[in-house]
Design brief:
The protein has 335 residues and is an alpha/beta fold. 46% of the residues lie in helices and 17% in strands. The chain folds into two domains: 72 residues, no CATH class; 249 residues, Rossmann fold. The chain is built from 13 helices and nine strands. A hairpin with a 6-residue loop joins strand 7 and strand 8. Helix 1 packs parallel to helix 5, helix 8 packs across helix 9 and helix 10 runs parallel beside helix 11. The longest helix is centred in the first third of the chain and has 21 residues. The two termini are 37 Å apart. Bound molecules: adenosine-5'-triphosphate (ATP). Adenosine-5'-triphosphate (ATP) binds next to helix 6, strand 7 and strand 9. Belongs to the Mrp/NBP35 ATP-binding proteins family. This is ParA/MinD ATPase like. Keywords: 4Fe-4S, ATP-binding, Iron, Iron-sulfur, Metal-binding, Nucleotide-binding.
Amino acid sequence: MIISRNILQSIRQLILIESCSPCSRHYGPSACQLRQKAILDSCQKSYFSLGTSAFNSPNSEDVVKKRQAELMAKGLPKKKAIPGVKDIILVVSAKGGVGKSTVAVNVASALARGRPSKIGLLDADIFGPSIPLMMNFGDLTPEVNKDNHMIPLVNYGVKCMSMGFLLSESSAVIWRGLMVMKALEQMTRQVDWTDTECLIVDTPPGTGDTLLSLFQTVPVSGVVMVTTPETLALQVARRGATMIQKLGVPIVGIVSNMSSVICNNCHTDIPIFGDGSEKLAADLGVPLITEIPLTCERDAIIKPAIVQDPNSFKAQKFLQIANFVENFLSSQNNR
Ligand SMILES: Nc1ncnc2c1ncn2[C@@H]1O[C@H](COP(=O)(O)OP(=O)(O)OP(=O)(O)O)[C@@H](O)[C@H]1O
């Protein structure tokens, strides 16, 4: 009986995900409703066709999960690799301002050490691009190659692409979902990413269109989740992580940023919010990669910590994340 209830709950969750997916916009509301009904019918059929033996089997939930994944894939755009890119790692956060871009630029710069131009950094935050400033590009703009593909700008050995390269500093992007999807498509597929071993993608906060679209259209190798260990941020992070896990995308681990503050005088590490990130990681069954303290940034030079002083305490934290990502990718690729 408990298993049956789980199955029905899974069906409801599936419908919830379906109705949130970008396809609802493509198909229009009435077509989307028909689609949802078809999915419900199909789910109910598989629910009844499982029979009593399936309900008694310890694998019945796996059967439903497999069916969910099959149905979710139905009718959605097929995932296509980004030409020239081997692995894609998304840096995500449920809340804004928790340090996602900081982690993305530093991990990309750390990975690029010793292998320049093999690591890419894509700024998928169309409305609030921060990579041009954080990677110190000034007002440079990308050129176009003979195939009409934009050539990423390179700094600190990292190939970068951002909407910010195409806009003046004071321009605002006032676009609806479909235009954002189009811009994302162009920044992934109409850019010369040749020979990129790993593309780090800095995503906008939350679990909106951009993130879903990336999950549905490109093969994401893994996700690094950034959060602060504060109750509200953790609660939203938990929801975001659950959605990512439902979509079957592996979470590399959690980075707990601004978790403590180090006293300038006695250098004591003072926790600010408690150990919520540790608990979140344990509940989700994913590693807590590292905890980064809040540091006093009075420096006017904007450079990734890893470039400014690779031996600093903060840079070492980012190196730890980069090593973690590398180990994760080699274990995935060895499978
Ligand atoms: N550990 C830290 N100590 C001090 N300042 C930090 C730390 N981490 C990030 N910051 C600062 O906090 C601000 C927000 O960081 P960042 O832009 O990386 O967050 P974000 O999650 O990408 O934001 P958004 O949601 O707007 O994309 C930046 O000014 C950054 O320099």
